[in-house]
Amino acid sequence: MKPSEIAIFTPESKDSLYIDIAGNPVHAGFPSPADDFLENKLDLNRALVRNPSSTFYARVSGDSMVDDGIDNEDILVVDKSVPPYEGCLAVCVLNGEFTLKRVKLDQEGISLIPANKKYKPIRVNEGSDFRIWGVVRYIIKKV
């Protein structure tokens, strides 16, 4: 896969995908006693996919968004039905290639903003073959 490519997958939403979830929240501050058992179920399809017919998964390839905490091989949950907005994280198609960037909307047009100082913002020119393919709703990371 070339560095600017993003692999796109459709979610399998016919069946629920349940995982166990702790009954109490995990606190990020002072530690609290851990649960000795799991009492709830979480359906990942229901939690992450609001619009099944317009939601896709995408695997990130590259490092242009690392300062936003998005790394190579992270998985994006992308919803094509969400209208793009200023500052949104979006999968865009520019001249036939997928790219992941923040969208900057201003009076002069659209810019795609990377989150890595190694890369420059991309100004979308009037003659460019461009569209915002979908807005990122969730990022799934391996830690």
Give the class-level CATH name of the largest domain. Answer: Mainly Beta
Radius of gyration, in angstroms, nearest whole number: 18 Å
Total tally of structural domains: 2
Task: Give the overall average pLDDT.
Answer: 82
Low-confidence stretches: none
* Cross-sheet strand order for the largest sheet: 1-4-5-10-6-7-8-9
Beta content comes to 35-45%
Assign the CATH topology of the largest domain.
Umud Fragment, subunit A
Write down the secondary-structure element order. EEEHEEEEEEE
Which structural class best describes the helix and strand composition? mainly beta
For the biggest sheet, the summary is: 8 strands, antiparallel
CATH H-level homologous superfamily name of the largest domain: Umud Fragment, subunit A
Distance linking N and C termini:
23 Å
Shape: globular
Helix content: under 10%
The CATH architecture category of the largest domain equals Ribbon
Count of discrete alpha- or pi-helical segments spanning 4 or more residues: 1
Overall number of strands:
10
Q: What labels would you give this structure?
A:
single chain; 143 residues; mainly beta; Umud Fragment, subunit A; two-stranded antiparallel sheet; 1 helix; 10 strands
Describe this protein's structure.
- The structure is a single chain.
- By secondary structure, this protein is mainly beta.
- The chain has one helix at 44-48, and strands at residues 7-9, 18-22, 38-43, 55-59, 75-79, 89-94, 97-106, 109-113, 122-123, 130-140.
- The strands form 2 sheets. It has an 8-stranded antiparallel β-sheet, with no helix packed on it. It has a two-stranded antiparallel sheet with strand order 2-3.
- A hairpin with an 8-residue loop joins strand 8 (109-113) and strand 9.
- The longest helix is centred in the N-terminal third of the chain and has 5 residues, at 44-48.
